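In the previous chapter we treated chains in isolation. Here, by contrast, the input contains two separate entities that must be folded as one system, with a combined length of 353 residues.
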Amino acid sequence: MEQASAARIDRAYAPARADEELVAETLSGRTAAFAELALRYRDRVEGLCHRFFADRELIRDLAQESFIKAFAGLSGYRSERPFSAWLRAIVINACYDELRRRRRHPEDVVPDFDPDAAADWAEIVRHASPEEIVEAAEERREARALAHRLLAMLRPEDRLVLILRDAEEMSVNEIAEITGWSEAKVKIRAFRARQMLRKRAESILAARKPHLP
Amino acid sequence: MNCFEARNAFRSLWREELAPDARRALFDHLKGCAPCDRAFRTFALSAPVLHSEHPPREQTAIPALRPTPRVSQHRGQNDSLPVRAALAATVMFTLAAGLAAYLSAVAPRESLDQALTGPEPAAVEVVDTQSLDLSNDLVR
């Protein structure tokens, strides 16, 4: 038993193994290898979900759903493509499906939205110096909440393309591959989405007492 | 810094990736250029989601599996085994963390919640605690 414990400790401190190696182990029946993959990517997966939604419960659910889908579809993974990119596509699809499900209820995107706090933040963005805005934004929860509400005013396709192109810095080609859209459609949609976002943001800033979504 | 350079630097500024000189130059530009200043403010409204490097995440269930309080309680009763107790705790935490990640990856949420709150943590079967005489404290 002690030897077994020692072996587990050795494994715990062993150098990180390649994703593909862990995938192969999982497929060969040692499903615990998938736990290592899940642990490795959990932060990144939740971080990506966080670009789409503010609700932490929902983010955890989506991350979990994505890992379940990845586990169930692992035999379809081909190692010519990085595992991270394959997993990311699964997460993006899960988030996009959820966005479409909620398209008629944008208020659900930020369940505990506080209009007064958000209005205070909008006032800061209107009047403070750029330096102060940058410094304050990280600490203010309402800055994120307002950003989510602003993005929720866009159509799911527009929101998706903005997040993938601007936040995740994916190439047009990568986005086209994941969404099934043509590259031209990705470019046009990204352009229109940025325009729409800018208009919405300007309308918030232009109002004397900011009109919040 | 011109307007094109300034607007291209918004994202780096937000992610704190700008060198101090470039940061200063950008702020100076924004002070003297109303269109860029307005563009920065509209950018700032969506930037907390679109341009933050690391969206905040709260602690998930894994750290809750740490058995440390029970270990420290026991150490007072059995000082001759502190190293082994720490070792057992480390092994247990490592296994429990892996198991929790695995459960969160492959099982529905209800199952994970049950694993975390139920009377029989799944880590019981894989940790040799009998030889340490800590089994009751650690795995209950």
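The two ends of chain B are 64 Å apart (CA to CA). Chain B touches chain A through 47 residues (CB under 8 Å). Compare these points with the single-chain example from earlier in the chapter.
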